[in-house]
Design brief:
- The chain is about 35% helix and about 20% strand.
- By secondary structure, it is α/β, with parallel strands linked by helices.
- The strands form two sheets. A six-stranded parallel β-sheet has the order 7-6-5-9-8-10, with helices on one face.
- Strand 6, helix 6 and strand 7 form a beta-alpha-beta unit.
- It folds into two domains: about 80 residues, 2-Layer Sandwich (60s Ribosomal Protein L30, Chain: A), CATH 3.30.1330.30; about 150 residues, SPOUT methyltransferase, trefoil knot domain (Alpha/beta knot, 3-Layer(aba) Sandwich), CATH 3.40.1280.
Length: about 250
């Protein structure tokens, strides 16, 4: 049986201000919960209807489906929901190819981009302060457990990139060089911009190499690529170039 205080706390974690206040976030679904349990994230409480988990009893709360619906953020609640601590935001040590997000606002896009980082072996993801919170329930759900394997930090991008000026900065721009013919290094910052406005002007001023994905279709009115889709193409090209160089 869930208490009113438990329900109130968990439901409040849908909002960033309460996640920041309590330093907690929610993970839903058996697969996702198990991936976080196998990671360095610290478990606070675990609510489940059927599955058994090998964690200390003090974390476990067996509830029925009716109670699960009261705390779930999903239209169709799954069999497990867990609350974990949010780790401290620490500046990542930039090495290899580092992805930089400038003002990504859509939770689904960020979740997908985190999965792409996991797939293409991008260890560090740097986000501007106005990028959607990676512990937003929709981001956590969309990342499908990849959040446990990608190091994410939020930084003011201007001083961060200036501090790391030894690394080239690639930016996706309409007037950039064709991604399929550009020379792509193994170590660089790759900046992806806001869904509607692209890369902010102050960050554009720091870009050392502009790149673009050419349009092969003849219809000029075709909408530009979704940022997550564009990220997948560009990361793939960076990795393909690295493989060819080796």
């Amino acid at each position: 049986m869930l208490s009113k205080s438990q329900i109130k706390l968990i439901k409040s974690l849908s909002q960033k201000k309460f996640r920041n206040k309590h330093k907690l976030f929610v993970v839903e679904g058996l697969k996702g919960v198990k991936e976080f349990l196998d990671s360095d994230f610290k478990l606070v409480s675990l609510y489940f209807t059927e599955e058994q988990f090998e964690v200390a009893d003090r974390f476990l709360n067996k509830i029925d489906q009716k109670d699960l619906k009261k705390i779930s953020f999903l239209k169709t609640p799954q069999n497990a929901l867990a609350v974990f601590e949010i780790p401290r935001n620490e500046e990542n040590q930039s090495k290899g190819l580092t992805l930089v997000l400038d003002g990504i606002r859509d939770p689904g896009n960020l979740g997908t981009i985190i999965r792409l980082c996991d797939w293409f072996g991008i260890e560090n993801l740097i986000c501007s302060p106005d990028t959607v919170d990676c512990f937003n329930p929709k981001v956590v759900q969309a990342s499908m457990g990849s959040l446990t394997r990608v190091s994410i930090s939020y930084n003011d991008l201007l001083p961060f990139l200036k501090k790391n000026s030894h690394m080239p900065v690639f930016g996706t721009m309409l007037d950039g060089e064709n991604i399929y013919s550009a020379k792509l290094p193994e170590e660089a910052f790759l900046v992806m911009g806001n869904e509607a406005n692209g890369i902010s002007q102050e960050i554009q001023n720091l870009i050392s190499k502009k790149i673009t994905i050419p349009q092969f279709g003849n219809i000029r009115e075709t909408e530009s690529l979704n940022v997550a889709t564009a990220t997948s193409i560009i990361l793939s090209e960076f990795r393909r170039n690295s493989a060819i160089e080796k």
